[in-house]
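Colleagues,

For the teaching module next term, I've prepared a clean inverse folding example: a structure given as tokens, and then the sequence designed for it. I'd like students to try predicting residues themselves before seeing the answer, so please don't circulate the second half yet.
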């Protein structure tokens, strides 16, 4: 607030002072006054059209305002003008990441690291992008070099824990101790989740749960999860996507290339993606934000929030053909040229009606998993800026109940239009389920689809280590290892028949 007051004094003395407007934008963005931030950075670009940092900041603000089309235009200006300032290069990478283009983000993060090799934050962002893209060996190298100099960087420890399976609990013990000492909630979350993952690798179940619970508590303390707003959004989806809406006829985009793999996170979506992309006609495009961003670009009233009742109602009026074409345009940069591609963003299940209307020849594959295993898999995973419901057992379970009800609604609206495939059945008996999957996609069978674990392609997932293995059943029923510790979650699911009545059942 004091900084804002000083900025106003500066601008009172000189309305044309570029630095004054830029600082107003930075302060406003920090205070979450995004309209003022956009106005201030806009003033900078008018006074100095070649101010790369202002264009990049403007792009990030537009993304936070839910205006991806304006963000893309501002980002284009920043890139066109160019920069060799590492801070600005890193910021451009951040905006590319928000827009779902992780390859471009990686390139800009790498430039930032090259210009400022001793800045830990830039190396962490680069490692994050490498991990997301499945370039795990390079990610491990970047993290190793960083931690050798900066052992206190909690996020780097967390990223490193996801890249390899722990062989003993020594590092986990150190991470848990470091987490207990940390006075910063975000750092505690990174450290405890990293420790929990490594304890679980070593089947130290009690210590794993204590770490996961501590990590979840730390993360929940710093996220703003509005459960009432989420409930309203799910109600709006059921209210606007009705049998009458489904029966409407409209022009669409007939391109058959997209394959959407959807569901809850950590339910086997990566396994299914790997089976599909082992086929010679299919490539992976990763977890794309492009469909949701395309919906928001074309909605008349998208609102600030990515998921909201307002946005759900507005999306029902989007032109299907324009939506299909915009999605294919926006996702084209993530493709390599195969006839078909997989978009593996789990939360695209929210858009199933729009996908089927806009791209009627696309295929949608929905992963199902035993509810307790599905909920616990999310609870013990630290996500970036998504799935805020997953850091409390009861909130996680109530979200799952809403999701399960919505999927029942979609099945009633679009019978036979998407494929439900069970994680448990697939890992227990791979071949018949893989054949059913490939047949649903309209592809000829190839034996390579049974040898998905031999793929050399990158893996953008928290399961990066596991997917290099053959299908296994080690994770089936894993929640039972934790028994009564998961009773808060189990009781919520049991009330609607989605879980056993007791942890001993």
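(Answer key — instructors only)
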């Amino acid at each position: 607030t004091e900084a804002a007051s000083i900025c106003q004094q500066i601008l009172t003395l000189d309305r044309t002072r570029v630095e004054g407007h830029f600082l107003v934008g930075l302060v406003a963005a920090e205070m979450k006054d995004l309209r003022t931030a956009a106005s201030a950075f806009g003033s900078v670009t008018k006074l100095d059209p070649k101010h790369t940092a202002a264009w990049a900041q403007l792009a990030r603000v537009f993304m936070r305002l839910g205006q991806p089309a304006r963000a893309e235009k501002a980002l284009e200006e920043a890139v066109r003008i160019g920069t060799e300032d590492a801070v600005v290069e890193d910021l451009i990478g951040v905006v590319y990441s928000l827009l779902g283009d992780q390859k471009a983000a990686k390139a800009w993060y790498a430039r930032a690291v090259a210009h400022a090799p001793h800045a830990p934050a830039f190396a962490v962002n680069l490692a994050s992008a490498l991990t997301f893209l499945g370039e795990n060996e390079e990610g491990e190298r970047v993290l190793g070099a960083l931690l050798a100099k900066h052992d206190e960087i909690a996020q780097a420890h967390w990223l490193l824990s996801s890249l390899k399976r722990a062989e003993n609990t020594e590092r986990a013990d150190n991470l848990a101790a470091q987490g207990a000492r940390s006075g910063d909630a975000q750092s505690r979350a990174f450290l405890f989740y990293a420790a929990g993952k490594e304890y679980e690798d070593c089947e130290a179940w009690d210590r794993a749960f204590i770490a996961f619970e501590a990590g979840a508590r730390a993360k929940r303390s710093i996220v703003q999860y509005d459960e009432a707003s989420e409930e309203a959004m799910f109600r709006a989806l059921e209210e606007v996507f009705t049998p009458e809406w489904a029966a409407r006829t409209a022009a669409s985009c007939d391109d058959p290339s997209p394959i959407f793999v959807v569901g809850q996170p950590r339910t086997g979506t990566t396994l299914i993606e790997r089976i599909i992309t082992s086929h010679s006609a299919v490539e992976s495009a990763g977890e794309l934000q492009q469909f949701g961003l395309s919906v928001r670009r074309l909605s008349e009233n998208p609102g600030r929030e990515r998921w909201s009742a307002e946005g759900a109602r507005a999306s029902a009026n989007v032109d299907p053909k324009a939506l299909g074409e915009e999605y294919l345009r926006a996702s084209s940069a993530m493709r390599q040229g195969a006839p078909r591609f997989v978009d593996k963003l789990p939360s695209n299940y929210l858009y199933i009606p729009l996908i089927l209307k806009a791209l009627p020849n696309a295929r949608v594959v929905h992963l199902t998993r035993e509810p307790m295993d599905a909920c616990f898999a999310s609870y013990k995973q630290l996500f970036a800026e998504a799935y805020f419901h997953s850091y409390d057992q009861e909130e996680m379970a109530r979200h799952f109940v809403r999701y399960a009800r919505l999927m029942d609604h979609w099945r009633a609206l679009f019978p036979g239009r998407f494929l439900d495939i069970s994680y448990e059945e697939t890992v227990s008996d791979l071949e018949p389920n893989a054949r059913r999957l490939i047949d649903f996609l309209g592809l000829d069978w190839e034996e390579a689809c049974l040898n998905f674990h031999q793929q050399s392609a990158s893996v953008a997932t928290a399961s990066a280590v596991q997917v290099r293995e053959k299908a296994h059943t080690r994770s089936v029923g894993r929640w039972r290892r934790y028994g009564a510790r998961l009773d808060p979650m189990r009781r919520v699911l049991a009330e609607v028949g989605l879980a056993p009545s007791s942890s001993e059942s």
